[in-house]
Amino acid sequence: MFIGYAVLAVLLALAMTGSAVATLTRNPAVVGSMRKAGVPDGWLPWLAAAKLTGALGLLAGLVVPVLGEAAAIGLVLYFVGAVVSHVRVKDYAVAPAVILAVLPAVALVLRAASA
Length: 115
Known about the structure:
The protein is mostly helical. Helix content is 81%, strand content 0%.
């Protein structure tokens, strides 16, 4: 189980870091999606920080299990919030956010099972 967590944690950390960088650099695709969901521009640095914190927490979970579990829970909540935000404004293109909510949930189960 630990190897599964390690692989998933590293891949998710890379994805979250890339997404955070895209958010901070105002990548048109990322920012456009967030604008459709009604996210104010002032929130972008905070949302990027949340993604980076999740990425670091997943990696820290390789050594300290509770940090990996906390980071996975935080990322699940982040992306559930993203799904809700999009659905609230009747934007139903939520597949990426749903997938990004499920993957840290899997990581949480793997981390908890390997502790």
